[in-house]
Amino acid sequence: MSRIGKKEIPIPAGVEVKINGEMVEVKGPKGLLTTPTHPKISYAIEGSVLRVGRLDETRLARAQHGLRRTLLANCIDGVTKGFSKTLEVIGVGYRVQVAGKSVVLTVGFSHPVEYNLPAGIEAKVEGNKLILSGIDKQLLGEVAARLRRVRPPEPFKGKGIKYENEQIRRKAGKSGGKK
Fold first, then answer.
1. How far, in Å, CA of 166 to CA of 3, rounded?
2. 90 vs 36, 61, 107, 132, CA distance in Å?
3. In this structure, what DSSP letter does residue 136 have?
């Protein structure tokens, strides 16, 4: 039995959960999120608790049990608290700016790279840090990964775009001349 799937999801005050056939809608103070249901998984709202269960013991049902519970928990967290990710831009002359709904990265190319943010994601800059925030955890992670892919951190000097808590494995570089 899935340990994560067995845990019930508390529904905080101000959050409304609706189960309509193929989608579960979660509406809260920060917005509305939907997540798809699965035919092998049962969903039940009991008071202020949401329970996720399996309809049978097939491999597919076992695989989906914990996943669907986590997706629903992320939706509830998103509409109440929201999520954020921080990227650091490291390098001499490397800059990041937010211009309306786009992020402009100056990271050593011959031209600045412009990335248009999707709806639901906000960005702000504090020095060399880019703070992304939104209610959809999956979309936020995808946007952060795409921005990091513009100039991933390199192992010799550590220049590039990295996550705030990411450790970069450093290499020694060239050794001295041969004798």
1. 28
2. 39, 44, 9, 17
3. -
Hey, what are 167's tokens? 């450790």
110 token code pair: 């011959």
Q: Which residue has the tokens 């939104």?
A: 134
* C-beta atoms surrounding 165 within 10 Å: 8
Instruction: Read off the amino acid at residue 27.
Output: K
Give the pLDDT confidence score for residue 15 in this predicted structure: 94
Q: Is beta strand 129-134 parallel, antiparallel or unpaired with respect to 121-126?
A: antiparallel
Work out the burial of residue 30: count CB atoms within 10 Å of its CB; fewer than 13 is exposed, 13-18 middle, 19 or more buried.
middle
What is the spatial distance between Cα 145 and Cα 151, in angstroms, rounded to a whole number?
A: 11
Write down the pLDDT at residue 173: 82
Of 96, 84, 153, 71, the C-alpha closest to 120 is 84
- Give mean pLDDT, residues 97-117: 95
Backbone φ, ψ for residue 6 (5° rounding) = -70, -25
Contact 26, 15 (CB under 8 A): yes
pLDDT reported for residue 49: 95
List Cβ neighbours of 175 (8 Å cut-off, separation of 6 or more). Answer: none
pTM: 0.89
